[in-house]
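Exercise 7.
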Amino acid sequence: MRGRRVAMILLGVLAAICTPVAWSQPDGNGAVAGTWSAALFQARGGRVAWYRGHAHELIAYDAVVDERTRNTEVFIVQPDGTGRRCVTCASAMPKGFVGQPAWHPDGRHLVLQAESPNARHRLLNHLAWGIDSDLWLLDVETGAAEKIWSTPTRHAALHPHFNADGTRLMFAERAPTGRSYRWIARHDLGAGGENHWDGWRIRIVDFDIAASAARKVSRARTVFGECGGFFESHGFLPNERIVFSHTSGGRAYVDAVYVANEDGSGMRKLVDMKNTWNEHGQYAPSGRALAFISSRADPTWQAPRSKPSELRTELFLQRGPQISQLTDFNKPGAARRYLVSDFDWDRTGRRIVFQVAPMDARGRPESPQLWLMTFSEPQ
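Solution. The predicted structure, written as tokens, is:
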């Protein structure tokens, strides 16, 4: 097969699309093995976690349940869309911004972010930033919940992930820098007038699922604490390395995806392109293909000059030096701006569930959705 992809995504009103939309990679030299398609999976959905063990194959995700407060709860659902139920609604979890789920390898527990008593339910307290968010462990079978990490005031805990055997937990953490800016303080959104793109690091803790709540987490250590800027954790690799995004200097964008040893040594870039936004790097279970989110399809968005409020992102796949664009929501003529963001692989490497957020004129998401992408061959 030769030429460009024979079909790209067709978008009208997103909520009205219920049938699969197909793409293909025709020349055999791209990053994707075979062809792929995508379809709307859940009309409302946020950050996602697909269980990749053998206990089940449930997808966990958070979703807005109150349009006025933007409060969220966490749901689980089968990959075919059946069996959807809320697992936090009747639990002891705090109410407010609750979500950013990640499965423990036992398939029964989720680690979640939840607003702490210090939070004021402002923009930066949202799950996307995690300022004044504690970490909780939820038993999805019983609804039992316990706080496992308390976040000091105006610190942040963001994007927690377990390693393959559940003995370590990684998340991004922000600590106040002590540098307040008058123009930011006038519009304080939850960071005390500080630049919320600065002061970040990676935290890794030992974890014992069988211990009491107070003892589940131990031996906390800081990685890249001296670097500053922004860090966002994406997960562990089987060889005791970690994947994360990082931007130095407190600049207001996500620069590149990196891999490093758990002690911070051996840091190198996995995904980068000058002046573009790149994040959420996740390898397929095979370890051969890396999916990531990027703005590179939009040449008009140039970091650091362009603003996050103007951002458009798509899902990409990289195998060796080859990169393929998997989605095209922001094609010319699209009715609005779209952010393709959080996603997760299934255990076979043949499916990805991902979030799509249409953005209004003021840069706010309009009912974020979940889409399901299926490949004809494992990646």
